Amino acid sequence: MRIVSLLPSATEMICTLGLEDQLVGVTHECDYPPAVLQLPKVTHTLIPKEATSGEVDRLVREQLRKTRALYRLSLPLLKELRPNLIVTQSLCDVCAVAQDEVQEALAQLPGSPRVINLEPQSLSDVFEAMRQVAVAAGVSAEAAIQSLTARVDAVTARSATLTHRPRVALLEWLDPPFSCGHWSPELVRLAGGIEGLGQEGRPSRTLRWEEVVAWQPEVVFVACCGLNVERTLHDLSLVQSISGWQELPAVRSGRLFVTDGSQYFSRPGPRLVDSLEMLAHILHPSMHPLPSGLPTPIAVNRACVGSN
């Protein structure tokens, strides 16, 4: 099997299923597990790396209105790699090569490779997507899924005993603010919180800061899509003057947290379970211990934000 992955979450699924040695090409954003960094990159982005978050938002909206394509596929390289299985998605136009570009490329590739389109919108959908990839590659996903499911069940069981579930705002972007969406509100619920801005199984949406303030979250958890902690902290420093921000219960009590949204929460793959465990620990540290090897989200106080 010669597999090309057109999104980072699919790359992580493929490797979790023990198919890492059959991967021959990945996207420019695939960076986990680290070994995939050495593989040929079959895509590039149209968004400049130096763009601010506000500029990224404007460019994304403009590009989607025009062509609905933010990534470009390298057809010559794809031909050279000769894949017989391509894994992509059609859930989010921001996150991968446009579906019509993939179809155009397929018509020019030798051997008519099989294409799997993944569209997970929940944790159970992620596990089903892993099964799809496994079936296409001729392996079993059940052992990997059972291991992941056991971890989810452990968090869920502990959360079931909680007497208080804090109001949570899990934000996926800051300029402008975006709610979380799809699987992330589910993660908040399983972790023992109440997400009042995003809806399970629905896309994230642009917010007004007044909505965030009106929700009066007891915990604000920032996991900006595609951004690392350093970049997120920089953007967070820009919201300090928002009317009502400093009076939010989460800010007053020091329950404002930042994590790497590029690695966690944004990718609908196996590490969503890591994301769940991290979030559960932040919401209820005495109830949910942080598993060994997972990073602790950064608690951000006012002084820390102001210095970034």
Q: Main attributes?
A:
308 residues, Rossmann fold, globular, 14% strand, 12 helices, 6-stranded mixed beta sheet
Structure write-up:
The chain has 308 residues and is an alpha/beta fold. The protein folds into 2 domains: 3-144, Nitrogenase molybdenum iron protein domain (Rossmann fold, 3-Layer(aba) Sandwich), CATH 3.40.50.1980; 165-306, Nitrogenase molybdenum iron protein domain (Rossmann fold, 3-Layer(aba) Sandwich). The chain is 37% helix and 14% strand. The protein has 12 helices and 12 strands. Strands 7, 8, 9, 10, 11 and 12 form a 6-stranded mixed beta sheet that branches. Strand 7 and strand 8 form a beta hairpin. The longest helix has 18 residues, at 142-159. The radius of gyration is 20 Å and the shape is globular. The model is unreliable at 303-308 (pLDDT under 50).
Walk me through the topology.
Blueprint: E1 3-5, H1 8-16, E2 23-25, E3 43-45, H2 53-66, E4 71-73, H3 75-81, E5 85-89, H4 99-106, E6 114-118, H5 123-137, H6 142-159, E7 167-174, E8 177-179, H7 184-191, E9 194-195, H8 209-215, E10 219-222, H9 229-236, H10 249-252, E11 256-258, H11 272-283, E12 298-299, H12 302-306
Parallel strand pairs: 1-2, 1-5, 5-6, 7-9, 7-10, 10-11
Antiparallel strand pairs: 3-4, 7-8, 11-12
Helix pairs in contact: 6-11, 7-11
CATH class of the largest domain: Alpha Beta
What is the CATH architecture descriptor of the largest domain? 3-Layer(aba) Sandwich
CATH superfamily of the largest domain: Nitrogenase molybdenum iron protein domain
The largest sheet, given as strand count, sense and whether it forms a barrel, is: 6 strands, mixed
Q: What's the overall geometry?
A: globular
Span from first to last CA?
47 Å
